[in-house]
Amino acid sequence: MTLIRRTNPLGELVSLRHAMDRLFEDSFVRPRSGNPGDEHPLALDIQSTETSIVVEAALPGVRPEDVEISVLGDTLRIDASTRDEQSRDDDEYTYREIRRGSFSRTVTLPGGLNTDGATATFENGMLRLTIPKAEVAKPRHIQVKASGAGEVHDLAKTVEQGS
Which DSSP symbol is given to 148? Predict the structure, then answer.
């Protein structure tokens, strides 16, 4: 019989609790279909600048002509597809993680965008979509002017004369 010295007996209980929490969350809160990458099939970065909304999407292995972007109201949808040029029905894979086929991502954008002025570029597997903000949605800078003591005094005289 081998004795194993445990420095922190509660450590195993804590790690078991974390494992159970993760199992519960993955099964019921965020169920997965079992395919790698299904949680976020299309990775996005969305940035708001003073003049526009910039959406960047990672689309490795996708050709620009295989990307479709649509905006309906405040909903942005990006559809993309990849093609496997060779048929490999007779090969046996040990592990297959590279996504092939069609996938999409739908996100809700903030209001006040000028979608007619949107531009998209595609370089090195990165899609960059720029949607300008409408004039009413752009922040306006209002300059505050300090009033001098003389202006306040003149206002007081005007009030006195009117009464």
Answer: P
Tokens standing for 6? 């445990």
The most distant pair of C-alpha atoms in the chain lies apart, rounded to whole Å, by 106
125-134 pLDDT per residue, tens: 899 999 998 8
CA pair distance 75, 100, nearest whole angstrom: 25
Query: Rounded to an integer, what distance in angstroms lies between the CA atom of residue 50 and that of residue 24?
Result: 41
Cα–Cα distances (Å) from 9 to 2, 4, 22, in that order, read: 17, 11, 21
Q: Are strands 119-123 and 101-108 parallel, antiparallel or unpaired?
A: unpaired
Q: What is the pTM of this model?
A: 0.56
* Bridge partner list, 121: 128
**Domains defined for the chain, CATH in brackets:** 12-38 (no CATH), 42-84+94-140 (2.60.40.790)
